[in-house]
Amino acid sequence: MSQIQKSPQPPTELPPEPLTPSAAAPRGRTAGTAWRRDLPASVVVFLLAVPLSLGVALATGAPLQAGLVAAAVGGIIAGLLGGAPLQVTGAATGLLVVTADLVQRYGWRATCLVTILAGLAQLALGALRVARAALAVSPAIVHGMLAGIGVTIAVGQLHVVLGGSPDSSAVDNAAALPDQLAHPHATALLIGAVTVAVLAGWPRLPGRAGRWARLLPAPLAAVLAATAVGMGATVPRVELPSWRLPEPPVLPDVSLAALVTAVLTVTLVASMESLLSAVAVDRLAAERPGTPPGRPRLNRELAAQGLANVVSGLLGGLPVSGGAIRGSANVRAGAATRRATVLHGVWVLLCAGLLAGVLELIPLAALAALVMVVGVRMVSFAHLKHVQRHREFPVYAATLGAVVLFGVLPGVVTGIAVGIFLALRRLTHTRVQVAEEAGCHRVRVSGQLTFLAVPRLTRSLAQVPPGADAVVELCGSFMDHAAYEALQSWATTHRATGGSVTLGGRSGRPLAAPASTHSCRPWTPWRNHHCTRPAPDRTAARHSGSQLLGGVSAFQRHTAPLVREELARLAREGQRPTQLFLTCADSRLVTSMITSSGPGDLFTVRNVGNLMPPPGADASCDSVGAAVEYAVEVLRVDSITVCGHSGCGAMAALLDAAGSPPPSNEATPLARWLRHGRPSLARMARIGRLGRGEVALAERPVADDQERLALVNVRQQLDHLRAHPCVARRMAEGTLTLHGMYFHVAEAQAYLLDERSGRFRAVRADVPAIGV
């Protein structure tokens, strides 16, 4: 272990753009490599986005060119300004049902106004930096919402595949489906079947030819195949009007409450879909080798999505959002920077202007089948299993059903209400079972033990006969004070009748306090520390060792089972630490906590003042020298760290004795030991009170002489270490390094010594310690 900080955290923001596959490559070569990856990726996403955008526009009842406008605006604006560089923005599939309802109720121009207002709301939310909070919504609600939207999409578009036209209501579409199935349009059904078959089979094409074929996105291949099949048939096809300036949006003739509801619905769904997609795409990109670490800037992404929606609404485009389908295709195609996203928008723009005649060959049934498959895939069985495993299926089912029956916003509200109800039920639902076993009565309490469960608990405890041996097993994770008092009162009364009571959790841990007051950590103070305090019936007399004994007992119960296997390995193999840590014996210095180390990591030497006597100083002080020799010669450690600390009593004693001459014979062992700190005292006197650059803290002035002496002492003890022959030899070989460290107890802040400048620099939480 050559570093004190072993687990630096990754940066919380993305690195500066562009995202390059290798930070060490020369600038010109890196830029060229990125272009070679971005250009083909942009073409792949463009080929995917065109049919998908047309299909979404068709399904909503909007002008077909609105889908292309949304794809171009989303790709260029959100691609340039967004906080998730590899996410691709376009016509929102999650908003398909909402947009279709808005178009049918209020008309297309009013829908554009709702899109603009929703974009402004997203801009405001991005400025308020609430994007992370949006991800706090239960995944069961989000997946239920998307599944409900998917079901509505699939049922509606199935009517188009069968040659009919969908209704605005999912319930009406489902009711009319049997009659539509009885009288299908044969050609439209054939085109839809070909589209679905190609979509399902394209990723499974075998052999080398299949690998080459899969370079073409499956949606484009499906639309091309369906277009070829229906080339000679008379079926409805894409109709793109001539490009002209969009008509200005208009205010719908509805109440303010209805308008606000529509805007909030579009804002909610578009934002959730974009943020979840950004996280998913980032996770997918992180699995790809050569991708720099980082996280999406969600607030920036939300603001960029808002601006894209404003522009799309002004230009007569559909509402936009980030999409996992387009984003994952972008990542898998090898995109390196946001250029791929922006270029895809440019290609869509050029296609809309130059290839309108080609697009008008596409049958509407093919686009409907494409969107229908997208809707079916929004009902993810993987998410369903995940939700079921976490016992949140009722929330998922309620959200899905309410979205299908009543709409997106009522569905989300329903899911939230069911989630709150289930949480309250779990909090208040408690089962108490009493069973007679061999020699004792076992009372098992399942669920959270609150004051609401006290009547049920006392009734069950009354079934235990007086004088019997009883075991009360608590299997929940929470117990309030009322339940704790009820248990303790019953236990005291039962013991008075001659019976015995064992109160414990599922793991057998004895109960000593309400679970809500127990928060044991390795650094929990012993003061008021209940979990290591022996129960009154186990320890008759209070003495100073009871707390220590309780702590050892707690170790045997909780920690020993977790570390036993690792300690057994160390017992077999012997210790192999990589660092010697020389520090003070002060009880406030917990070396394992400061260094995040475990068994076998550190060879630790502690003494008063973290002193390292120089060679030959005194034969009676050989223990520290022996430990250093053993660590360097036998254990072959890689580094030695000398750690001083604030408020050191040894430094205070040295300063107190600085004004008087040293006695010829020190009267006590402590006084004799502290003489090894006098060289540090003399060194501080030589450099003067201001330090003259030899010792200082980089971030703040040295507080006082005691802190200054502690810093000087670290440097002095490092010099003493270098004087030992075994240390000097290993350093000359280049196999051993020395480090200085200072720990300020009140600040909980570690400082590392920079030998070149003589300054101690603070170790930051987000910056790894280099060279330590």
Automatic annotation (TrEMBL):
Span list, region Disordered: 1-31
Segments forming domain SLC26A/SulP transporter: 36-393
Keyword list, A-Z: Membrane, Transmembrane, Transmembrane helix
Biased composition (Low complexity): 20-31
Bias (Pro residues) ranges: 8-19
Coiled coil region boundaries: none
InterPro entries with a match to the protein in the record: Carbonic_anhydrase, Carbonic_anhydrase_sf, SLC26A/SulP_dom, SLC26A/SulP_fam
Keyword Transmembrane included in the entry's annotation: yes
Transmembrane segments annotated in the record for this chain: 39-59, 66-86, 106-128, 140-162, 182-203, 215-235, 255-281, 345-374, 395-424
Subcellular location, record wording: Membrane
Main location: membrane
Membrane topology: Multi-pass membrane protein
A Pfam entry, by short name: Sulfate_transp
Assigned protein family: Belongs to the beta-class carbonic anhydrase family.
Role noted for this protein: Catalyzes the reversible hydration of carbon dioxide to form bicarbonate.
Protein name, per record: SulP family inorganic anion transporter
